[in-house]
Specification:
Elements: H1 2-28, H2 39-44, H3 50-74, H4 77-81, H5 83-109, H6 116-141, H7 145-159, H8 161-174, H9 179-205, H10 211-232, H11 235-242
Helix pairs in contact: 1-3, 3-5, 3-7, 5-6, 6-7, 6-9, 6-10, 7-9, 8-9
């Protein structure tokens, strides 16, 4: 009984995310009707580099619909006990995340609703996913399973933002929250909160690790992204297209 309650939060999380996957997938079928533009694209157009943006949008949705359920499945005890299946599914998922999901998400982020703050939030999440996926794959190849598990938890946590962010937007809209601010809050809170939860879980298993060092890593990433955007001179276009 104690073991059941110990694993209950994890099971609730996985079930909730699987349910979120189903809802997102059902709402995303319109993206694969190549004869028409999805409502989201019609709302966003015109954008700079329209062809690149449209291709990235459809590839991003396709990659997300495959990789998110795959990462959830890889986090289950059932697949973790089947090492061969876990290994090959993990490799395929990692390749699609690194070559499809993250690059297309980065392209789309520069035309995100909400301007620069939202762009930086998406880029931060993409950075965490990319770095954690690379680190997790390398850790698995070295046989460092604890490091591999922590890295994959960060990947899954950031992917869960797709569900938690949508849920927050619905709640904030129902509370008559300012729409522009709601979009920023509904992105940054899940991104930082998901990363913090993973680090807290890691601290419980490794007391010697420093929570302060985690905050410092996040601060450095945010500072680097801000410096990059300013250096490239994309502040004005991003803000303008985000309105």
């Amino acid at each position: 009984m104690r073991s059941f309650f110990a694993h209950l939060p994890r099971r609730i999380f996985l079930l909730g995310m699987f349910a979120g996957c189903v809802l997102i997938a059902s709402a995303s079928l319109v993206y694969f009707d190549w004869a028409t533009l999805p409502p989201f694209a019609i709302e966003k157009l015109p954008v700079r580099f329209e062809t690149l943006w449209l291709v990235s949008l459809r590839l991003h949705v396709f990659s997300a619909l495959l990789t998110f359920p795959a990462c959830l499945s890889l986090a289950t005890r059932t697949l973790q006990r089947r090492r061969a299946v876990h290994r090959w599914l993990g490799r395929a998922t990692a390749a699609l995340v690194l070559l499809g999901l993250v690059p297309t998400g980065a392209v789309l982020s520069f035309d995100a609703k909400g301007g620069l703050p939202v762009t930086l939030g998406f880029l931060l999440s993409a950075t965490i996913v990319f770095g954690s996926m690379v680190g997790g794959v390398l850790a698995a190849r070295r046989g460092e399973l604890v490091a591999h598990r922590r890295a994959m938890q960060h990947v899954l946590a950031q992917m869960s933002v797709a569900v938690t962010s949508r849920a927050m937007l619905v709640a904030l809209d129902g509370a008559a929250f300012d729409p522009d601010l709601a979009y920023v809050v509904a992105l940054w809170l899940p991104v930082l909160g998901s990363a913090a939860v993973v680090e807290l879980m890691s601290l419980r298993m490794s007391p010697g690790r420093s929570w302060v060092s985690f905050i410092e890593r996040i601060r450095r990433v945010v500072y680097s992204l801000t410096a990059y955007v300013r250096a490239r001179g994309v502040l004005s276009p991003v803000a303008r297209l985000g309105r």
